[in-house]
Specification:
59% strand, elongated, single chain, three-stranded antiparallel sheet, alpha+beta, 56 residues
Length: 56
């Protein structure tokens, strides 16, 4: 398993409200993205956009 760094944008009510950088343990960039999205499901007012995903 490798560590992947994700850069995520928070979008609330159609406006960008913040950015975050975090690390996820996964076997591929696709799996890292899926793990993040599974842990942070979109709601009616808030969603997340993954800007970058790179192996550390």
């Amino acid at each position: 398993m490798n560590t992947y760094k994700l850069v995520v944008q928070t979008i609330q009510n159609g406006k960008i409200t913040g950015n975050a950088s975090l690390s996820v343990g996964a076997n591929s960039t696709m799996e890292a993205r899926q793990k993040f999205m599974a842990a942070h499901p979109p709601t009616a007012t808030k969603k997340y956009k993954i800007i970058a995903c790179a192996k550390q």
